Amino acid sequence: MGVPTLDSLIAKGVRGKRVFVRADLNVPLKDGRITDDTRIRASLPTLQRLRKAGARLIVASHLGRPKGEAKPEFSLRPVAPRLAELLGCGVSFCDDCIGADARRKADELGDGDVLLLENLRFHEGETKNDPDFARALAQLADAFVLDAFGTAHRAHASTVGITEHVADVAAGELLESELAHLRVVREPERPLMVVLGGAKVSDKLAVLEALAPHADVLAIGGAMSYTFMAARGEGVGSSLMEPERIADAKRILDAAEASGRTLLIPTDHVVAQKIEDGAETRVVRAIPDGWMGVDIGPETAARYAEAIALARTFFWNGPMGVFEIDAFSKGTAAVASAAADASATTVVGGGDSLAAINQQGVGDRITHLSTGGGASLEYVQGLVLPGVAALER
Question: Catalytic annotation on 351?
Answer without folding.
Answer: yes
